[in-house]
Structure formats: structure tokens, C-alpha cells
Amino acid sequence: MSDRFLPRRDKVNAELGKCELKYDGFIKLSTCELTFTRSDGERVTLSREIHDHGEAICVLPVDRERRVAMLVRQLRAGAVYNGETDPMILEVAAGLIDPGEEPETAVMREAAEELGFRLSELQQVAAYYVSPGTLTERIYAYLASYSLNDRIGEGGGLEDEGEDIIVEEIALDELGEAVLQGSLRDAKTIMLIQHLMLSEPELFF
């Protein structure tokens, strides 16, 4: 692999200075001083808003024998805010990692809560930032396997967290076509389906 994809240690010497917490709820929003060395050698300090949401996981469970995947559909406030006519977003199962919890443990917990299934053969695809300009959130993305024999509950999410999740099985060729036509609206879902299309194209075509 090219060195350009490895962690770099450029002489930016980035440091966070004073941070002022502006909001502390489901998210934390702070204004921070960011000091670093520019590529021309000048040392500068900028003010940046930081949205701290913790870390999260997402997973695309696949039944390769039946050539289907399991996704969820749920109401998303951001889509409502943007005036979407259909704010019920089709996406892969996802959720925040609890403090002290390993990402794979979070995958299994969220799969049980949202899907009602036990997953196997977890494969980490990536650990990526959604929008690193302001968001601290890093998402650990996985593929996994399941079959109809792996059902362990009803799924649908946790009522005490306000979740009202619809579980759907969708044929992989239909999902692949949706990606190619630009019909899906959730980035993590598009990424995981594209990865599966590239790594196991025989499931789609």
C-alpha cells in the first residue's frame, strides 16, 4: 500500500486551546481555539465550532444464500428539517458506542435491538469521519452475515429511546440498482453496499 494512505506526521503541531462548552445535551457543542502550523510555516490560531457526538457503528447484514440484506427505515429529524417529503430514511442499522464498549460489541447489541437478529462473521470495512471539519464522530462500518435461523427478538429499536424502526429485507440486486441510480439517501448505507458490490459482485449480477 502506498505511504500516502498511512497516518502522517506532518509538522502541523496542531493543538486545541481554550474550549467553551455552548450546549450539553444529546450532543455537545463547543467553541475551541485551534492552533497549528500552516504549510508555509506560519503559526496561526483559528476559532472552530466542535460538535461532539461520540463514536458509532453501522452494519450491513447479508444473507448470501438468499441474496438479501437487512436494512431499517426510520424517521430522521435532519430530513424533516430539510423539508424532505419522505423523512423515513432507508439505511443500515447503526448506533452510538457506549462508553467503554468495543465497536464489535456495539454492532451485536444494535443488531439485537434494531433488527432482532444475531449476526456472525463481522468484517470491519472502514473507520471513517462523517464530516471532520466540525464533527468528532467516527463511524466503524461493518459487513456481517445472518440467516433466518438467527432471529432472537422482534427488533424495532428501544421504545424508551423514542425509536420506531421498521426492518426490511431487500434483494441485493435491487439494492445495487438503487445505488447506481442514486436512489439511496444515507451515506453509510451507500458506502457499505458499494463495498459489497466491489468485493462480491457475484451477489449482485
Please, could you describe this protein's structure?
There is one protein chain. With 205 residues, the chain is an alpha+beta fold. The protein folds into two domains: 9-52, no CATH class; 56-203, Nucleoside Triphosphate Pyrophosphohydrolase. The chain is 20% helix and 38% strand. The longest helix has 13 residues, at 103-115. The model has no long low-confidence stretch (mean pLDDT 93).
Residues in β-strands, percent: 35-45%
Identify the CATH class of the largest domain.
Answer: Alpha Beta
Characterize the largest beta sheet: strand count, sense, and whether it forms a barrel.
7 strands, mixed
How many runs of DSSP E, i.e. beta strands? 10
| Unreliable segments of 5+ consecutive residues | none
CATH topology call of the largest domain: Nucleoside Triphosphate Pyrophosphohydrolase
Q: Overall mean pLDDT score?
A: 93
In N-to-C order, the SSE pattern is: EEEEEHEEHEEEHH
Would you tell me the structural class of the helices and strands? alpha+beta
Broad shape: globular
Helix content: 10-25%
CATH second-level architecture of the largest domain: Alpha-Beta Complex
> Kindly, what is the distance between the CA atoms of the first and last residues, rounded to a whole number of angstroms?
29 Å
Oligomer: single chain
